[in-house]
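W.,

You were right to be curious about this one. When I first looked at the sequence I had no strong expectations either way, so I just let the prediction run and decided to look at it fresh. Below is the sequence, 211 residues in total, followed by the output.
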Amino acid sequence: MRTLPRFATALLVRFGPQEEPLLGDLVEEYAAGRSRAWYWRQVLAAVALGAMRNVGAHPARTVIAIAAGWTTAMLVFVLAGDRIADGLARWLWAWDRATAYQTGEWWPFWITSSALSYGVFALSAVVVARVARRPAGPVLVAYAGSMVLVLAASAVAIDVLTRMWGRVPVPHPLFYVVSVALPFYWRAGLVLAPAIVLAAGGAAMPRPVRP
C-alpha cells in the first residue's frame, strides 16, 4: 500500500472535522491511485470547511476563544513589548534605541521584535486552544485565518498610506502585530504567523480520542 502523506494526514486529524469516514474515504481514494496533490487539496478543503461549519455551529464559543487569543497578544505587546524587545537587543548586541535613532542601525531590534511577535502569537494560540476546548482544531484554524486577514489588511493599508503621506507612524503595541507582514520582514508573517499558531495551538490541544 502507498504511504500516506503524513503531514497532511496529521493536519486533517488535528484540525479537520472529527469524522472517521472522511479520513477513511481519503485513504481509500489515495490507495486507489489518487495523487498526493489531490490528497492535499482534499485535506485543506476539509480543514477550511470544517472551520467554517464550526464557526456557524458554535459562533459564541469561537468568538470568545478568538477574542481571548487577540486579547492575550495585545496585553503582552502593550504591557511588555518594548521592554522585552529592547531588553533582548541590549543584552545580545549592546543595542539601545537612542543610538539607533542616530545611526540608523535597527537590525537588532528587528530581530528581537520579530522573535517577540512570533512568540506571543504562539502563546495566544495556546490560550485559544485552552478556551475553545474540544474540538479546538477548527477554532484554531479560524484564529489563524483571522491573523492572516489582520496582517494582510494592515500591510495593504500601511503601504497605501505610506505612498499617500510618505510615512505612517504605528504605535509600538500595534507594531508587534503588523511588523512581520511588512516589507523589511519580507512579508514572512503572512505564512509564519498562521503556521506558528497552528503548531503551538495544536501542541496544546488534547489528543483526539479515536474509537
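Here's what jumped out at me. The first helix runs from residue 6 to 15. And, maybe more interesting for your project: Residues 6-53 form one domain.

Coffee later to discuss?

I.
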